Amino acid sequence: xxxxxxxxxxxxxxxxxxxxxxxxxxxxxxxxxxxxxxxxxxxxxxxxxxxxxxxxxxxxxxxxxxxxxxxxxxxxxxxxxxxxxxxxxxxxxxxxxxxxxxxxxxxxxxxxxxxxxxxxxxxxxxxxxxxxxxxxxxxxxxxxxxxxxxxxxxxxxxxxxxxxxxxxxxxxxxxxxxxxxxxxxxxxxxxxxxxxxxxxxxxxxxxxxxxxxxxxxxxxxxxxxxxxxxxxxxxxxxxxxxxxxxxxxxxxxxxxxxxxxxxxxxxxxxxxxxxxxxxxxxxxxxxxxxxxxxxxxxxxxxxxxxxxxxxxxxxxxxxxxxxxxxxxxxxxxxxxxxxxxxxxxxxxx
Length: 349
Hints:
Oligomer: single chain
Order of helices and strands: EEHEEEEEHHEEHEEHEHHEEHEEHEEEHE
CATH architecture of the largest domain: 2-Layer Sandwich
Keywords: Cell cycle, Cell division, Cell shape, Cell wall biogenesis/degradation, Cytoplasm, FAD, Flavoprotein, NADP, Oxidoreductase, Peptidoglycan synthesis
Pathway: Cell wall biogenesis; peptidoglycan biosynthesis
Enzyme class: oxidoreductase
Number of domains: 3
Strand content: 25-35%
Distance between the termini: 31 Å
CATH topology of the largest domain: Uridine Diphospho-n-acetylenolpyruvylglucosamine Reductase, domain 3
Strand order of the largest sheet: 6-7-12-10-11
Family: Belongs to the MurB family.
Shape: globular
Subcellular location: Cytoplasm
Number of strands: 20
């Protein structure tokens, strides 16, 4: 590791898409994965807790961050193999690559499969942690394997997608063994002839509006980008972390009972990874509970999408979390449904 890259008392506002104010006690921008073992050993010797920071798009800073914050700034995209199975190629991207830029690089090279995940903020290394997904595709569907540093064993390891415990917005890295693995690179199985995923009505509507009857992966990506831009604020213009709450997975019988009491309730078909459960639209619950467009000081519920909490500037994480808690309590009281926060907390209140 390079001691000159270690900085003290670093303002983290530029490193989170919500734009919340917080200070890292120590901060290191990691540009070489080989520096990781020495960096973690130093932190252990100093007794510093360690936090990993990717693109900052799925983080809420509850307060200042003690110990060492490592920003994963690793870069690089390469083709590992062609004709892996038919015309499938294995593409490796370093953990610090911006996710959206990577999806567009893949498309430009004729590597299809990521088009439905266009314009999702964040970094490549964070994508498996959250098992990000949109419009019928999840990381679990396209990932081949990854390389990570196992902090428990003190070695770099290779994990196949099947080893990652993927579930709806969840993984081995998020729930089962958080903090154990530091992802440094992710590999994807992509293909020029991979079937397009067009099942979501929004995509079909966007393609129809654009006059596209025989879509390509590029057409799908353009449609997804247009949909997301119409629904979600640009973090560069208005601080946000995308969807702040997960869509609850509920037993089909409970969904039927809710739809009987609330006929407009939006729910989706049973999920393959969760037999017998249905996904309920958290945004609908929040909007119907009266929160859409609500503002409290520096924080608010977005005026176009109730699932998104926004920060107008100058605020702290405690304000945002207090608003989130009130929304959760309101939805619970009205519908008997417990919302779960999607972004992870970092720092001390």
